[in-house]
Amino acid sequence: MTDPLLSATDISVTFRIGGRRRGTVIKALDEVTLAVGRGEIVGLVGESGSGKSTMARVICGLQEHHTGGIVFDRRELRATRTKQERRAVQLVFQDPYASLDPRMTVRQTLAEVLRVHKVVPKDRLAARCEELMDLVQLPPRLLDSRPGGMSGGQRQRIAIARALAVEPRLLVADEAVASLDVSVQAGIVNLLADLRADLGLSILFIAHDLAVVRTLCDRVAVIYRGRIVEERPCLDLFADPHDDYTKRLLAAIPRLDGPRTEGLGTGALRS
Amino acid sequence: MTPVDAPILSVEDLRVSVDVGGRPYPALDGVSFSLAEGEARGLVGESGSGKSLTLRAVMGLLPHGARVTGGRILFEGEDLLADGGRRQRRVRGTGISMIFQEPSVALNPVMRVGEQIYDALRRHRRHRRLSRREARDQAVHLMELVGIDQPAARLDAYPFQLSGGLRQRVMIAAGVACRPRLILCDEPTTALDVTVQAQILRLFAHLRDELGASLLYVTHDLAVVAQLCDSLTVLYAGRVMETADDLQAVFAHPHHPYTEALLKATPRIDGEVRRLEAIPGSATSVVDRPPGCPFEPRCGYATPECREGPIARTPVGASWEVACLHPVSATVSEGAS
Questions:
Q1: Predicted ipTM?
Q2: Cα B79 vs. chain centroid, distance in angstroms?
Q3: Which of A19, A262, B190, B238 has the most C-beta neighbours closer than 10 Å?
């Protein structure tokens, strides 16, 4: 990619488990290099413990101790980011039941972000809130309700609206559809695709569900034990995986029209 | 596989009410299906559709505030609800066992996993007089059966020392300890990674094929059902929308608009990439379920008649029933290879 929006180079993060003397050091990320182009949706897939969420934290500037460099919009990001730099990258979390304040109405949630970042003048607050609701395809009348009465899909749309309130360039969606029913998940996936088409938003879509990634993303990076083992255009990777781990991952996915799983002999069951 | 024998489990017009804010609501409203020996039936639907509640009613483990208000649950021909739950208690564990979604919650964290398997063995009459040594041997055998490496060494591990996949295998080992004829599975692979899920599905297929156990498998993942099950029951807001003995036929030509909508919303791993079709609105709650078809507000085929009165299930094929006034038969599997 000639001029990516974000390029993270040789990112390493280590965690120490246990005491200082006897503890072991775990490499959560091991020289990971990842780029997201302008208006591109990149999938980062891997199983639990592979380092996906750590990568999300590094990109959002939430992981303090890491090595490697991050260039955003041709500017090197330093350890302490400016307000503008923080605005440019926003994170959407997995669980919309935990990521919204239950005591605040949707309007309060959105207006708080708009005020803190001085996105719009005061007299435009109400109008901007309605525009944001429109952007995430929710009726404006929900602005005065609290998350309590809302479905998971509605909540996740609110969480996305909150992230969009500061007009970010890059959205990092960390398992943002994982806890939703398939019928609702489809709506959120479509919404992300629409946001890219309408706003030119770049998205780093972190997920363990490869079928969703295949539907949404332009490019996929497969991460395994803190290393990117394969990174290619989405359809190529699914049609013809090169790396052994990618092959295993793809083979493990249940298919609607695949062959029925057969029981094997007792010995063959061993993992 | 066509079930020929008398069903091992037959759920007839099951009604369960759940208290919400002090008022009872019919959370299961006339759920019926049956399961032959060695058959695997998938029970699917969105959250709140009543799939887990159905399993819990069969197991006799309804949560506080929920109770059976009608219908019958026949296990091997005998009504489990008839004698105040005494028979249900007797078959629990030995005849029917249940595997839960979260092995980290269902296992006792301060008990070695071996002990938890001995417990399952000793709790039931057949093995009550087991010596410690015999229990240990059987536990090792069970752990081998579910594919745990170095079972003897793992007996003394605590659940936190095992990975999610191993913990789920321990759960299954305890669950099948007394050779149940029916295994109720409540989303047992939802919390697991996809490669581990594939191993656990193979294990269930093994129990189904080698031990001849019947499976009632609850999940929201249609692809998992396609891989493991023979037959399918689709629930929505506590009612059966579509039920059939031939799952493949339903996936090829779903007759209920809800089944069709679920299939169209499911992202696919092969074939042409197309935009997913979300189901508009959100799942109907049992609290404000309309008198007619519960799916009517979200359904593209609905007409005013759909709102009136309960919709009866009508046959659309051999052992295939649909509760819909306007059944569809579009080929949704087109585009998938």
A1: 0.85
A2: 20
A3: B238
Torsion, Cα of B102, B104, B109, B111 (10° steps): 70
Q: Tell me the CA end-to-end span of chain A in Å, nearest whole number.
A: 40
Cβ-in-10-Å burial (0-12, 13-18, 19+) of B132 comes to: exposed
- Let me know: does B73 contact B243? Beta carbons within 8 Å: no
pLDDT for the residue numbered B62 = 92
Nearest CA in chain A to B273: A215
Q: Which three-class secondary structure state does DSSP give residue A2?
A: coil
Order the strands of the B239-244 sheet from edge to edge. Answer: B96-99, B182-186, B214-219, B40-44, B231-236, B239-244, B320-322, B314-317
Are the Cβ atoms of A189 and B222 closer than 8 angstroms? no
Per cent of chain B over pLDDT 90 is 53
Q: Are B153 and B144 in contact (CB under 8 A)?
A: no
A216, exposed or middle or buried, with CB in 10 Å at 0-12, 13-18, 19+? buried
Nearest to B32 by CA among B202, B240, B249: B240
Of B145, B193, B336, the CB nearest to A266: B145
Please check the confidence at residue B337 and state whether its pLDDT lies above 90: no
Query: Could you tell me the pTM of the whole model?
Result: 0.88
A190 alpha-carbon distance from chain centroid: 15
Chain A residues touching residue B263 (CB < 8 angstroms) = 256
